[in-house]
Amino acid sequence: MNAVTSAMYKIKLKKKTRMVVSGIAIAVASIYAIAISYDLGRAEIFSFFTSSVLLILAIMAIAIGAVFTLKMAARLIRILARKL
């Protein structure tokens, strides 16, 4: 166990929360490693980070819309089935 993981266990975070925090830490470390290895400027890193966040937000919006659509369709089918 490394220091970050043991610190998370001391704080008593839920498993999903620990997974999210770990994922974000890995993403930040990866972006930092890319920036150092390719000698990228601050503007390029900001542009990369912004586009990555926008892509993730777009994917989340599509997923939320799909779930909403499926739930509404299921509710409509239930309502129509009761009336028949």
Q: Which bin fits the share of residues in helices?
A: over 70%
- The dominant shape is elongated
Radius of gyration over all CA atoms, rounded: 21 Å
Distance between the termini: 59 Å
Low-confidence stretches: none
Global mean pLDDT: 82
Map the helices and strands.
Layout: H1 3-11, H2 15-38, H3 42-83
Verbal overview:
The chain contains three helices and no strands. 89% of the residues lie in helices and 0% in strands. The relative contact order is 0.05. The radius of gyration is 21 Å and the shape is elongated. The chain is mostly helical and 84 residues long. It folds into two domains: 1-39; 41-84. It has helices at residues 3-11, 15-38, 42-83. The mean pLDDT is 82.
Report a brief summary of the structure.
With 84 residues, the chain is mostly helical. 89% of the residues lie in helices and 0% in strands. It folds into 2 domains: 1-39; 41-84.
Sum up the structure in keywords:
single chain, 84 residues, mainly alpha, 2 domains, 3 helices
